[in-house]
Amino acid sequence: AGNSKSSKSTAVPPGPPMYLDLVYIPNHSNSKNVDVEFFKRVRSSYYVVSGNDAAAEEPSRAVLDSLLEGKAQWNCNMQVTLIPTHDSEVMREWYQDTHEKQQDLNIMVLASSSTIVMQDESFPACKIEL
Q1: Residue 12 lies in a domain
Q2: Residue 113: inside a domain, yes or no?
Q3: Does 120 map to a domain?
Q4: Which regions in the chain score pLDDT beneath 50?
Q5: What are the angstrom distances between the C-alpha of 20 and each of 12, 17, 45?
Q6: Tens digit of pLDDT for each residue in 31-62?
Q7: Quick one: pLDDT at residue 99?
Q8: Which InterPro entries did the record assign (predicted)?
Q9: CB burial class (10 A; 0-12, 13-18, 19+) of residue 13?
Q10: Can you tell me the distance from the alpha carbon of 98 to that of 10, in angstroms, rounded to the nearest whole number?
Q11: In this structure, are strands 114-118 and 121-125 parallel, antiparallel, or unpaired?
Q12: How far apart are CA 130 and CA 114, in angstroms?
């Protein structure tokens, strides 16, 4: 009894879906915290994917695949835009490997070549209109 743990935990408990305009995928898109259930329940027009640490698997290919699997279970073809905060090998490979499925599911990956320069720093940016 006392020592039986489930090997799979989910960050989002089962229940009805939530519809949001913009969602930042938690914990640098690490698969320890985000799974298919997250994307089945947390439905958004825009998802921000952060993470630029290949050693920590951030962003995680499993999380990106979970988006596809979760979105496939929605009963609508709502447009979804994925906004990566960094250009990473994981994101590029996932984009190329799953491009056809992304199109089928009405998922667009937004790449931005805009840069904001403020005093001594600069960073990539993209414009989102809600």
Answers
A1: no
A2: yes
A3: yes
A4: 1-7, 9
A5: 15, 10, 7
A6: 667 889 999 999 999 999 887 766 666 688 99
A7: 95
A8: MAP1
A9: exposed
A10: 24
A11: antiparallel
A12: 19
